Write a sequence for this structure.
């Protein structure tokens, strides 16, 4: 049975995962889920972030795993190979995902780290297009990658494969613009399941809230919901917000379209956009500005006059240069 | 721009809790071994020694001096 599961996960890691991303991506485009929100600059950012790091970071991680670890810890290879498969899965799942939770959270809470993670949040849409959108330096120092590789070297290879398969599926589905969790909130009979689900793993509702352009408005919450595979880290550490709603606007309120090279390789390349956090004289963290009509997902929000004050945002003129 | 003291304090508190969470599965695994009487590391060592012996045997079998 365990062999069958390993075989299945092996396939998911090899072909299945790419297929999942491709199928989700096609579905997202077919249903027009990106609406008019995939402009040329953002396309280049997404494509550059998806492709270019693979040529450098993957070989580096392979070098660390296949050359550095055997050289530095020659006697420790497979030393924990005796750990039962079940416990191996639990150990890897906690070690990998909790480390990523911290890596992610610190990039939001320590001001000087924010700009390394900003690229992932600058997209004004959710979906497969932006799921891999990261600054290359942020990806390079993904601490959980090196921890899990070390645990694989110590003998937890099979459990790591299983965890990787499950984690990739959950994080991909949480970034998707397909709100697959909606029925869980809509149908009363599914509410108990929804309660467990949204507290255990990242769902579109909780992760989209993390990508919202606003925070502390009852739905958007970029100050929390940091969990990648597991959401219970946010519950345990008090950084969770569960609203069962989806934000009306994603991204960064003051984002003005920094070019792909600055978003991929800041601080090596700086942004020419005046006032941007990635500009040569950019501040570490800019304060939010009121959203503009074009930043909202919903057409209703794009067309209304934005003068009402009944809980809806009141738009003001934004000077992006400040 | 500096981090707010409240955020800093929460990070320190949560890091301490995280250390406990990292250790928890290892502790639970050893508790389960204690209860069941299992000693899987012993089998692994034996298996390792056996594999080494088998490898040595194989080496000897193919000793070019024969």
């Amino acid at each position: 049975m365990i062999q069958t599961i390993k075989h299945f996960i092996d396939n998911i890691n090899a072909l299945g995962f790419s297929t999942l991303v491709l199928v989700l991506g096609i579905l997202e485009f077919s249903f027009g889920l990106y609406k008019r929100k995939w402009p040329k600059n953002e396309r280049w950012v997404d494509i550059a972030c998806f492709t270019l790091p693979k040529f450098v970071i993957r070989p580096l991680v392979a070098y660390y795993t296949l050359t550095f670890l055997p050289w530095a810890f020659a006697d420790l290879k497979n030393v924990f190979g005796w750990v039962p498969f079940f416990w191996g899965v639990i150990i890897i799942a906690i070690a990998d995902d909790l480390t990523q939770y911290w890596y992610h959270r610190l990039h939001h809470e320590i001001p000087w780290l924010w700009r390394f993670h900003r690229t992932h949040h600058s997209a004004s849409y959710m979906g497969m297009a932006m799921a891999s959108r990261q600054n290359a330096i942020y990806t390079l120092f993904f601490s959980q990658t090196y921890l899990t590789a070390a645990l694989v070297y110590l003998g937890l290879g099979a459990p790591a494969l299983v965890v990787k398969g499950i984690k990739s599926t959950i994080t991909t589905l949480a970034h998707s613009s397909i709100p697959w969790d909606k029925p869980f909130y809509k149908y009363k009979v599914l509410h108990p399941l929804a309660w467990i689900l949204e507290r255990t793993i990242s769902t579109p509702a909780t992760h989209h809230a993390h990508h919202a352009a606003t925070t502390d408005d009852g739905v958007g919450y970029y100050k929390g919901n940091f969990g990648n595979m597991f959401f219970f880290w946010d519950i345990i550490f008090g950084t969770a917000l569960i609203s069962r709603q989806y934000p009306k606007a994603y991204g960064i309120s003051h984002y003005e379209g920094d070019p792909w090279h600055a978003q991929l390789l800041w601080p090596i390349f700086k942004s020419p956009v005046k006032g941007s956090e990635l500009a040569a004289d950019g501040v570490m963290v800019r304060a939010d500005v009121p959203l503009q009509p074009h930043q909202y997902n919903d057409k209703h929000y794009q067309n209304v006059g934005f003068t009402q004050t009944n809980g809806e945002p009141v738009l003001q003129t934004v000077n992006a240069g400040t | 721009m500096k981090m707010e003291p409240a955020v800093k304090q929460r990070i320190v508190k949560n890091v301490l809790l995280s250390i406990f969470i990292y250790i928890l599965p290892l502790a639970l695994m050893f508790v389960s071994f204690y209860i069941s009487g299992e000693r899987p590391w012993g089998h692994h060592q034996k298996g390792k020694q056996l594999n080494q012996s088998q490898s040595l045997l194989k080496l000897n079998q193919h000793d070019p001096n024969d």
